[in-house]
């Protein structure tokens, strides 16, 4: 059965389930008049909402449909099946009750207002498939203005899993994060967060390129976000194209577009090259081609090749841990610890196995534990 | 176990359930890459969102916490357990997936904006426990501006069930809706809708009183809503207090406050008086007292007396029917037919049995059928 057939059959991939059977006996406890006691208790002490209601275990998966998968700005209705899938993963992998909320608005300020207004229902907010650069402002502001965790998965989920894979890949080729040169293609939501987290983790030499070439200081006509990135990266201030960035690089990380580079470009990289080509479903370079170019370790976003870099390794456990511990803010420290936890689940990393399987049921629990030990 | 103990134990009365098991085999169908086909299909033809996603069967239960049960403006957090209970009833009685959304905003325009913004997720909007008169404007505007059904249960759910009970009560005492005098106490959300629906159904002589006494034409200092009501009711333009309205009345309907009237007041009513005292949990007059005053048929909102007037007889079936038939607007005709359907389920109405039991499992299906036959 394909996805459309399944959607037709199910009419949505998730449903509501009652935790208690409704009978003449339970009705006055579940609803009026008994529920009034619960309401009064919460009215007196608002914190009890995190103990007595769904808020304890419920996350909103919020999207405006502006950057859905590789499909672009297809709107809220078309984004809904993706958010449902995400909600299903939340429940199956970490027991989190996630509720898709797709928005008819794409204005930054309005989205911030709306999410703040509906927040009292939720214990956390997972932002999803909101296009850059609006996603940065929306996430930053909501983090400041809400007292529940806010996490843009396209940014930070990706960054955590990339770092997890890279930790093991570097172990396999015996290179040090502080000494490697990393070429990154793509400066959307994912790219930006990957860069920041790698720097936090110790990377010193990252060269980034967007669709117009390498980001360097004083490049004209670039956004404020890219201006900031130009100051954090490219220590030699080199100019040119992505392929110029690849010359002498130890690591390539693609979070951009299909078929950007060829075996020839990989050949310019250092020995034991690590290639994470994560444009999905068609990577920046196909694994066979990367191998032909001499890449030692190859990862993609696909399930049909080894080393799948999949956000599903991060977000369920992140929210499981944050909800359980009532963590208000998911920090870079949490993210790095989560990446280490994921990497640590691969007993003997080797070129064909740097990351756990996407559905490895041990992962979410390990990631959640990061929040307990803080 | 009481409600607080149950809330502590469950941490919320509803949860998310996956409709399909997550495995290595189902992952690419439920989520990426397969889900992209579903998104593309909906992007091409937006109507498919009502077939392929949770929107087909999902309703938002929206409250700003401004008029919760009899507790007043206790805020969104304290309203959440009530909305959860409602969601549980939706599922258990009609298979509708209802999602509580409690709002941090109480401004009319902002609530309208927020509900419109989140609407693409939902197949219908159930407004709940929003105080009058804001609830009227909010519902009216949303009905106009959204293409899914919007239903303020405190207004129309109550009106439907009151009418259902009254149809049978009048049958028992052999009186005609067109000839009875009806005294109503309370002009909030429920009272206003009850009055309008009774008039639609044929009532000619309704006298309403609020906390300041009878509503008559040109009474000073009354709101626009009450001004309109003054033109639809009180044909003899009488003035005075609720007890003056009761003199010579055949029916009393209370949707107001506890302990407003006494046996003495009921004695002023006509023979075979019908008393619906629905302030909850403490009625306008206790059934024993009303009986002492000579009332023939007595109904309350309570489950521990006969003839419980409970909204739960209406809203699950209303949304079941509206969702199944993709009905855009719930009309007065739907409401009257629903009331007749509910009344019709009582085979031989008598003074102790004018309405089905609150959890009668046949009711929702009968009410839903109203939408099919339109």
Distance between the termini of chain A: 44 Å
Most extensive contact: A-B, 97 and 97 residues
Question: What class do helices, strands and sheet pairing of chain A give?
Answer: alpha/beta
- Unreliable segments of 5+ consecutive residues of chain A: none
Helix content of chain A: 40-55%
Arithmetic mean of pLDDT of chain A: 97
- How large is the count of helical segments of chain A? 16
- Please report the total strand number of chain A as a whole number: 11
| Shape, per Cα inertia axes of chain A | elongated
Strand content of chain A: 5-15%
How would you characterize the overall build of this protein?
2 copies of one chain form a homodimer. Chain A is of the alpha/beta class. Chain A contains 16 helices and 11 strands. In chain A, the strands form 2 sheets. A 6-stranded mixed sheet of chain A has the order 8-7-6-9-10-11. Chain A has a 4-stranded parallel sheet with strand order 3-2-4-5, sandwiched between helices. In chain A, α15 (332-344) runs antiparallel to α16 (363-372). Chain A is elongated. The N and C termini of chain A lie far apart (44 Å).
Write the layout of secondary structure elements.
2 copies of one chain form a homodimer.
Chain A: H1 3-10, E1 14-18, H2 27-30, H3 35-44, H4 49-52, E2 58-63, H5 75-94, E3 97-102, H6 108-118, E4 124-127, H7 134-145, E5 150-152, H8 153-173, E6 181-185, H9 189-201, E7 205-210, E8 213-214, H10 224-232, H11 242-246, E9 251-254, H12 263-267, E10 274-277, H13 287-292, E11 297-300, H14 315-325, H15 332-344, H16 363-372
Parallel strand pairs in A: 2-3, 2-4, 4-5, 6-7, 6-9, 9-10, 10-11
Antiparallel strand pairs in A: 7-8
